[in-house]
């Protein structure tokens, strides 16, 4: 085993690799861009090397700087993660030329699978079923249109250099072909610097089922399949293993084909063979075709780990360091069922636009495998993939695992940016998905219902009003009756709409919240009770914002009513409480000499701490506040000696 490796990546996958290295006692070196200096993967690694600017071309794609960093830190091997340099054969060659080990396949294996047309030719020769279609050199539009006609509509135009769903167009009929071809070619030219396309038959009721393979350079085995049919714009959203409805015959046929594919190119390490499956009539051993091979660890590898008990990163390290394959095919079995949901900073309601922002809250329920590269307080920057986390669950059956997924998503607390969490929750409850009736069109067919933003109920708004007033904490119960006034008005802004709520304190720690369209009696005893019934909701605060989490996450901006000068009593030398609150601390005693701006006391209100400072230089004449007491607005806290 290696003593030290360098991880040429960032985010969740870098953290994921470090996790395994720690368990195996392998020292880790992280690399990072300027904006990632304080990132989670950097904090987790034993050592970190700065690569340069935020743009990937200035940092994570700088193969020469990465190899130099490996040399300087004594790393023997480089793990590429996924994306970035993971499928770049020139980088593999440079790593090897520097006397280091690339934790992944050979440059020639990556090249063999790099272009979809050449890969398909190769697979056909190896006896792997390939989607019928045209993949010739002749790129003349008229010629391609004729080929499409021969294949039969609908067809799919694909960039031969494609990836991540780019450069792909489905065409329904001949009259739409020319425009679609032009769009696909221009997208491909921009994204991959190569505008060559191939044309495939569009498979009806398509399901995306892929097989995890693992090779030692000669022999290969497979670790069963994953179903990744839940897609948006050809990108995966929720993945699962095993595939619903899979039969032993089909699994054997797909597994054999995938192993043949890997062995045909002398594959070493972890890889994935993706197949498109005709799901219109159940799964049949003659109804699947090779699409492409991803020559790296795949984003969704954890579902395979969950059902096989294998740590794929450990296998990668062991095989790369010269050990034989850690298991034989017959040792591998499937246990239970697993799901992975990709949590992104994106606005599902607005065309899934990527979002940025500082994550003020980030918490996953206990027992859930959450793969993440960020912590609460970290920022989703515009520079990289907006993935926040992968939520992975495992259960004895598909139904129990899906229930665990629903619970895991319902218990996930994330705030500070718009996310696709509500979308994922709805998807996890989707009837067709629940029934295992999946195909790649499922999300699109129901996109409006799945992506609509949740409307906050009047109960949610009532809780938000209490939170906006800082009345959502347990001490409110004891403190409420002491407070004057006994009624407040909360102002909340939700998606640009301002709303007000009248809150009156009642006896026994209860409040009446009157909204424009409803009124509720809200009580806090451990959890929340609304109109007498317990509600499973949580309240959280961020700067200028309150969040209420029920099955969804609702955020409300709180316009600052406290833009008051905490040193308002400067002239009189009297320091008063600018709002009702709890005196958290008092820093001065009678007779103390203070300078203007020195901290005198801290008042906690609206869930924020307000530091009260000395209005001028002078001496403290009298301390009227005691830490731990609740005070009213305007209560005198500290009196300074006359000038
Ligand atoms: P997978 O096939 O492993 O599930 P995806 O299909 O989601 O992965 O993405 C394909 C590849 O594109 C992955 O290697 C992923 O890391 C990479 N990728 C996706 N988005 C970005 C991005 N914004 N920047 C760099 N790489 C990306
Ligand atoms: P990429 O390299 O962008 O991942 P793929 O060839 O893997 O491209 O295709 C991406 C997705 O497009 C698949 O997961 C599947 O949903 C869909 N797809 C690809 N080929 C076909 C096809 N022939 N018929 C129907 N859907 C397809
Ligand atoms: Mg693919």
UniProtKB/TrEMBL annotation:
Residues 120-321 form the ATP-grasp domain. GO terms for molecular function: ATP binding; ligase activity; metal ion binding. Residues 564-641 form the Lipoyl-binding domain. PANTHER family: CARBOXYLASE:PYRUVATE/ACETYL-COA/PROPIONYL-COA CARBOXYLASE (PTHR18866), METHYLCROTONOYL-COA CARBOXYLASE SUBUNIT ALPHA, MITOCHONDRIAL-RELATED (PTHR18866:SF33). Gene3D superfamilies: 2.40.50.100, ATP-grasp fold, B domain. The keyword tRNA processing does not apply. This is Acetyl-/propionyl-coenzyme A carboxylase alpha chain. Residues 1-448 form the Biotin carboxylation domain. Its cofactor is biotin. Keywords: ATP-binding, Biotin, Ligase, Nucleotide-binding, Transit peptide.
